């Protein structure tokens, strides 16, 4: 399943003002991996994700999805493979109703009639917002918008799911629901998050970005136990690894 593979080689991105957001970033993610990309604010996480479906194009280096190099010519094919959920759902929702937003992707895949309706229903059900299908997106709460934005991507049945801060703005119930959905998604998952307990629960592998470069890439639990690395990258251990400061109960060990 080569089309599920994400390969980044010597990626560099410089903004128009001359600021370097990414420097010499390289990694390879294979079919079925669940990988978190973490780092402090400004580390380059969102910029990196935007390169994975062509929302940004590299200044230097290469992004490949399966056998295809990411170029303007290959963008349509790559965007059918890579589903991207942006950090701000307002960047993703633009139609008059929730139904129309979720149907937009399948319609652009050439699907029609009952198949589109089934995809809309299934995607909205999976994120728990089927009851909002006839609502205008601008009337939704931030958490509801986030779930609808996720549904717009799930309706496309992507092989690779890329999400920027998927739990931001979600209440605890919606967070648990989303984590269950991500566990069920059997293809490749890549996401950024400041929710390191979620990362620990969902990702066996984590990539740590610092000042636009990769500081570490390895097993999540191993990296989260490296206090020197976390301190250098302005990160803290997940709460589940810190133990209780009040009762003194031990931290999670596995």
Question: How would the blueprint of this fold be written?
Answer:
Elements: E1 6-14, E2 20-29, E3 34-38, H1 45-51, E4 60-65, E5 68-69, H2 75-81, E6 82-85, H3 98-108, H4 113-126, H5 142-154, E7 160-164, H6 172-184, E8 188-192, H7 196-202, E9 205-210, E10 213-219, H8 220-224, H9 227-232
Parallel strand pairs: 3-8, 3-9, 6-7, 7-8
Antiparallel strand pairs: 1-2, 1-4, 4-5, 9-10
Helix pairs in contact: 3-4, 3-5, 4-5
- DSSP E strands, number: 10
The assigned structural class equals alpha/beta
What's the number of helices?
9
Helical content band: 25-40%
Write down the overall mean pLDDT: 91
> Which fold name fills CATH's third level, the topology of the domain at 2-88 and 159-241?
Rossmann fold
The CATH architecture classification of the domain at 2-88 and 159-241 is: 3-Layer(aba) Sandwich
Largest sheet: 6 strands, mixed
CATH superfamily (homologous) name of the domain at 2-88 and 159-241: P-loop containing nucleotide triphosphate hydrolases
Run of helices and strands: EEEHEEHEHHHEHEHEEHH
Q: What would your notes on this structure say?
A:
This protein has helices at residues 45-51, 75-81, 98-108, 113-126, 142-154, 172-184, 196-202, 220-224, 227-232, and strands spanning 6-14, 20-29, 34-38, 60-65, 68-69, 82-85, 160-164, 188-192, 205-210, 213-219. With 254 residues, the protein is an alpha/beta fold. The chain has a domain at 2-88 and 159-241: 3-Layer(aba) Sandwich (Rossmann fold). The strands form 2 sheets. The chain has a 6-stranded mixed sheet with strand order 6-7-8-3-9-10, with helices on both faces. Helix 3 packs across helix 4, helix 3 (98-108) runs parallel beside helix 5 (142-154) and helix 4 (113-126) crosses helix 5 (142-154). The radius of gyration is 19 Å and the shape is globular. The mean pLDDT is 91.
